[in-house]
């Protein structure tokens, strides 16, 4: 009877121990799962690998406050947009780009001079210079005039000064108006002559080439009121003074 009681007690102990072991194992499993969840929730985001950007692709086209692209230099942006301007090609040097950097001066060597009387205004003549050369030339200031044996050239009408130097293209002409004498007879020291010599000026107001003889064709009376205008591009402008 005593042996039977002892066997039951031992069996009960074994069963109780097995249950205790199973309970401990279950608790350990639950604790491990909880710890893994806690670690996942509390971990920091993984940093991107070196050489990559954490910003979305669309952010690469945003501009900063200065208007430049955050994705790179302005030249890179221009290349992508196709709006970059090419550097101009080197140009072949022209006559105006070399030497003094200006067109040649009009002289007796590259022009032809003529002078004619006009009905209006009275006592006026029109001096015409035509470019006979192959290049445009500049007619600086006003022509030097020498009627007959005059020892000096007549003064210029200052009000006739153009806004820019008159440039004469090949085959084209420029003009100067000449007042030979006063209409009311107030001039003095008058004389008649059939001889006229015309000279040109350079950009420094010096003589450009020699004097050119221009036939008058008839006697022309000149006095102390003799004047000349600046070279003009238009005939009408030359006869306004």
Automatic annotation (TrEMBL):
<feature type="compositionally biased region" description="Polar residues">
    <location>
        <begin position="96"/>
        <end position="109"/>
    </location>
</feature>
<dbReference type="Pfam" id="PF14016">
    <property type="entry name" value="DUF4232"/>
</dbReference>
<feature type="signal peptide">
    <location>
        <begin position="1"/>
        <end position="35"/>
    </location>
</feature>
<protein>
    <submittedName>
        <fullName>DUF4232 domain-containing protein</fullName>
    </submittedName>
</protein>
<feature type="region of interest" description="Disordered">
    <location>
        <begin position="36"/>
        <end position="109"/>
    </location>
</feature>
<dbReference type="InterPro" id="IPR025326">
    <property type="entry name" value="DUF4232"/>
</dbReference>
<keyword id="KW-0732">Signal</keyword>
<feature type="compositionally biased region" description="Low complexity">
    <location>
        <begin position="57"/>
        <end position="76"/>
    </location>
</feature>
<feature type="domain" description="DUF4232">
    <location>
        <begin position="106"/>
        <end position="232"/>
    </location>
</feature>
